[in-house]
Amino acid sequence: MKLEGTTKKIMELLSKYNTTKEISKDLNLHPKNVDRYIRVLRDLGLVITKKGKNGGVYITEEGKYLLEKGQISLMMAKVRIVAEDRIGLLADISLKISEIGGNILSTTLERENNKVVIWLSLENVDFKKLKATLKPYVKNLVII
What we know:
Distance between the termini: 20 Å
Oligomer: single chain
Radius of gyration: 17 Å
Order of helices and strands: HHHEEHEHEEHE
Number of domains: 2
CATH superfamily of the largest domain: ACT domain
CATH class of the largest domain: Alpha Beta
CATH architecture of the largest domain: 2-Layer Sandwich
Strand order of the largest sheet: 4-5-3-6
Helix content: 40-55%
Structural class: alpha+beta
CATH topology of the largest domain: Alpha-Beta Plaits
Largest sheet: 4 strands, antiparallel
Number of helices: 6
Strand content: 25-35%
């Protein structure tokens, strides 16, 4: 996976700034959007966050290495899945997404007779891998 887009810019700015406020100002993004990226980067162990007077966001050694090598992607997308409704379907889909390194930001389900439409907001997912992994579980998968 390649380091790209906003994620790469945020990681690069962490060598210059250490607050989401400074980063959001530099990128002209809302601080809540930057916070979302920072949370994922923290969960991946690429940054650490500290509270208090000398607090902020700091890139870890792993983060520095990946930034140098450009080996991560946090692109986000909305996915629409249509599948046969059954007990445990969402758990199975969530597990498979987790196994390929994906992160689910939000989900909405709509039931239509014996089918379910699942809307997922995902990040850090290779979409070819996602389609292949979920093929046994779904009738239709569209990336929006």
